[in-house]
Amino acid sequence: MLTELKYKDITEKIIGGAFEVHKFLGNGFQEVIYQRALAYEMSLAGLAFAREIEQDIYYKDLPEPIGTRRADFVVEGKVLVELKALVQLEDVHVAQVLNYLRAYKLEVGLLINFGAKSLEFRRLILTQ
């Protein structure tokens, strides 16, 4: 039995935009270049997004945050997108996205790497 992926319509548009960016720019640029290009592609796709939203990070029952983090995008208020421009993704990058999902209280994230010869992406789900 096939189950529908959560927010499939949103993630397909984001991934499609990422492929368009990589097809045009290739690899070798800084992450911010890909971020700006993907923002353009997501706008063309009609997606609402916020870029580099700062989120407080809390520890246990401390009332004040111990720091902040910034995710590259939160799309439609539902999907977190973290971009990389690296030769190869590593487990630490997956862990980063999972931590961001917890901090932002979101379930679905995309980790997209523009630095490899071919576009790489991972769809991550945070289960409670």
How do the strands and helices of this protein lay out in sequence?
Layout: H1 8-25, H2 31-44, E1 49-57, E2 67-75, E3 79-84, H3 91-104, E4 108-113, E5 120-125
Parallel strand pairs: 3-4
Antiparallel strand pairs: 1-2, 2-3, 4-5
Q: Key features?
A:
128 residues; alpha+beta; Trna Endonuclease, Chain: A, domain 1
The proportion of residues forming helix, as a percent range, comes to 25-40%
**Cα-to-Cα separation, first versus last residue:** 23 Å
Q: Report the sheet with the most strands, covering strand number, pairing sense and barrel closure.
A: 5 strands, mixed
Oligomer: single chain
**Major sheet strand order:** 1-2-3-4-5
CATH topology: Trna Endonuclease, Chain: A, domain 1
Mean pLDDT, rounded to whole units? 93
Give the class-level CATH name.
Alpha Beta
Shape annotation: globular
Ranges where pLDDT stays below 50 over 5 or more residues in a row are none
Number of helical segments with 4 or more residues: 3
Structural summary, described in words:
With 128 residues, this protein is of the alpha+beta class. The chain has a single domain (8-125), classed as Trna Endonuclease, Chain: A, domain 1 (3-Layer(aba) Sandwich). The protein contains three helices and five strands. The protein has helices spanning 8-25, 31-44, 91-104, and strands spanning 49-57, 67-75, 79-84, 108-113, 120-125. Strands 1-2-3-4-5 form a five-stranded mixed beta sheet, sandwiched between helices. The model has no long low-confidence stretch (mean pLDDT 93).
